[in-house]
Design a protein that fits this description.
131 residues; mainly alpha; 0% strand
């Protein structure tokens, strides 16, 4: 007799997982193109510039998915709420981080990029935990 049980993972959680990985991929793209800029490859500048729009778009997708997941979980505490808050933090951090890249010193742009990356990784880890 098989005593193992499987529970289907809800669609909203799969959407959130996809969004978190897409957000991380966009941030990884930004890091790769930033590395090219540090080596004075100016051809990477438009790739880095337009990649920032991808980071913002994926942050919106992740936040929307996190809100959907939190709402469907009853708007309580725990992992769904933490995921929603961390996704919101990652979304909000993207704006000053991008503005500092365009108008501010790189000494602030780069550390804030690391904080943004940490928030995105934190959200992805939470999204891929067992439900």
């Amino acid at each position: 007799m098989d005593t193992t049980t499987t529970t289907a993972i809800p669609t909203r959680l799969w959407v959130l997982r996809f969004a978190a990985l897409a957000h991380l991929a966009a941030i990884l793209w930004e890091g790769a193109t930033a590395g090219q800029l540090v080596t004075f490859n100016e051809a990477a500048l438009p790739l880095h510039y337009y990649g920032a729009f991808g980071v913002h778009a994926m942050a919106v997708l992740q936040l929307a998915a996190a809100l959907w997941y939190w709402n469907s979980a009853g708007r309580g505490g725990g992992v769904p709420r933490t995921l929603m808050l961390v996704s919101g933090l990652a979304f909000l951090l993207g704006f000053p981080q991008a503005a500092l890249g365009t108008y501010g010193p790189l000494q602030a742009h780069v550390p804030l990029a690391l904080v943004l990356t940490g928030a995105a990784v934190w959200a992805a880890v939470l999204a891929w935990r067992r439900p």
